[in-house]
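Pasting as-is:
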Amino acid sequence: MNRENSSLLSVRDLVVRYRTGKHRGAELTAVRNVSLEIEAGNIFALVGESGSGKSSLAQTILRPRTAESGSVLFHGEDLANISKSGMKKARKNIQIVFQDPLASLSPRRTVLQTLTEPLNHFRIGAAADRESRAIAMLETVGLTAEDGNRYPHALSGGQRQRVALARALVVEPELIIADEPLSSLDVRVQAKILDLISDLRDKLSVAFLFVSHDLSVVRQLADTVAVMYLGRIVECAPAGEVFSRPAHPYTRSLLNAVAAPDPRRPAPVVLKGEPPSPLTPPTGCVFHKRCTEMIEPCSSVVPEEIELGEPDGYPPKSKGAINANHRVRCLLWRTPNA
């Protein structure tokens, strides 16, 4: 079976633009010809700085008509062209967990009411059984039946995020889009939620599109990592490849900026400068103005995405073959070292 047919979700050449300014005359391209594949049961991490287009990409997946062009395929079916009933089924099978659980949970509903609402909406199971199903899901995410009687304001941040996960999982989706789900939590709670997500994937075989600005967060979690900068995916590979053999200078910059717990390790290197405005993106490679490794063509030539094998040029030839699924947009891979 080829990769295209086996993918749970396939995003192809997606372009997302917004009209901005007082008279809506200016145009901002948030996502530039992005393609990605998510396999069933896998955790796909989308990483990049704020403003890179991660959330625009993630939130467009279930609203494909807002895209300028491109397609979003779920089980090979284009979500822009399916029927109303087909879209309802897709919305059941693709759930979203938002960044701020307090803002995404109704303050007027108890936790149990929050979990039974999607069961009622999608008419899942017998009405008499929905409450017990919701309680079972609370216990799956590490909460109790007693927590079901509480309101969101009475819960801690970690507990609220568990409720948000439970609400997404209670309808038994195939894919959860988790858009910066840890950014409002402290480090200790983040670790617990990461462990929970990993356990849920193993137990329920649900796939995740996990959006984060922090590579250190996804290191212990992801199967595949895509690095996004100014609307483009500049590198995508199995997680082990990204962390052991980063191919794009931006990826290496993000890794160098991660603080290490070992005091013997060098201090993190902060990436200089701010990303350019997406209203006025640079010509050529979108990263070239901040790149310490740029060469002359980078300022004018837009690099194509290439699949890496054993490189003949830059970076230096590494031991062992590079994974065939390792893809990068960088002219350095086409220019031999001097």
